[in-house]
Amino acid sequence: MADAHPLVRLETFALIAVGGFAGSNLRFFAMGLIPDVPSIVLVNAVGSAVLAFLVYEADYADRLTARTRLVFTTGVLSSLTTYSTFALQTALAARPLALGGIVAANYGLGLAGVLVGRLLARRLGVPRPTGGETT
Amino acid sequence: MSVLLLEGIDVLGRTVLTVDPDPAHVVGTGGAIGAILRYVATKRVSERLSSERVPLATFAVNVVGSFVLGLVVFAGAGGSTLRLVGTGICGSFTTFSSFSVETVRLYERGERALAVANAAVTLACSLAAIGLAWLLVAVTAL
């Protein structure tokens, strides 16, 4: 990417910026709808599931273009989900039980989301023969 | 429509016009900046420390982003500043989805101990970074 054409780099940045705008806004919208701690659990679980689907879909069917992947993975999903707010909520938890609950909910549902996304990708895609013709 | 103009009176009795942008636009702008910063930082870390085994780039952005969010919150930022830097930039700079997918992929490759360590060390270092941010703010406030 370092030696890519400036316009190509600009396009990459623009695609990521648009995705980042949308992803962070979705997270902000969720935080307005439901309390802070459950909203972060929700976006982290859903975001992990969709990202896992896209990542494993690349292994199995690979129907999406590189640009679409860039917008959704690096842009929307990575911005929708967040580690910093989760870590701060954990650090500021009043009781040890609340602290454990926040960590267990985010880690547990985040990892469960990945497994759901992987399962969906496997169901929808037939594994591509390795080394065979693409498209 | 998106930008709210508020007329007020400042401490010297002058009429001032303050711009109060739509919160969603502030968060979105921060989110776009955070996403680009993450992309650049991830690339840099991956180039410098080419490690196929450990997802160092995601670890780095999550710890650094947690530290900065801690600084902003403990320094007492509120309103638009908190939305821009905290919810927007730090929120988008750090990522949970890449972290969880990479952790599962490590586990799948048979690197089970490394997967568990990645989850534990990311949490421990992010919490330590927030503690350090609190300490820095407390010390500079003295």
Q: How much is the average pLDDT of chain B?
A: 89
Fraction of residues in β-strands of chain A:
under 5%
Could you tell me the mean pLDDT of chain A?
Answer: 90
How helical, in percent, are the residues of chain A? over 70%
Oligomer: heterodimer
Gyration radius of chain A, rounded: 18 Å
Biggest sheet features of chain B: 2 strands, antiparallel
Largest interface: A-B, 50 and 49 residues
Unreliable stretches covering 5 or more consecutive residues of chain B: none
Measured distance between first and last alpha carbons of chain A:
25 Å
**Helix amount of chain B:** over 70%
Question: DSSP helix count of chain B?
Answer: 5
Number of domains of chain A: 1
Describe the global form of chain A: globular
Describe the protein in words.
The complex is a heterodimer of chains A (135) and B (142). Chain A is an all-alpha fold. Chain A has one domain (6-124). Chain A contains 5 helices and no strands. The relative contact order of chain A is 0.17. The mean pLDDT of chain A is 90. With 142 residues, chain B is mainly alpha-helical. Chain B has one domain (23-141). In chain B, 72% of the residues lie in helices and 10% in strands. Chain B is built from 5 helices and 2 strands. Chain B has helices at residues 23-48, 56-74, 79-93, 97-108, 112-141; strands spanning 3-9, 15-21. In chain B, strands 1-2 form a two-stranded antiparallel ribbon. In chain B, helix 2 (56-74) packs antiparallel against helix 3, helix 2 runs parallel beside helix 5 and helix 4 packs antiparallel against helix 5. The mean pLDDT of chain B is 89. Chain A: Belongs to the fluoride channel Fluc/FEX (TC 1.A.43) family. Chain A: It comes from Natrinema altunense (strain JCM 12890 / CGMCC 1.3731 / AJ2). Chain A: Pfam families: CRCB (PF02537).
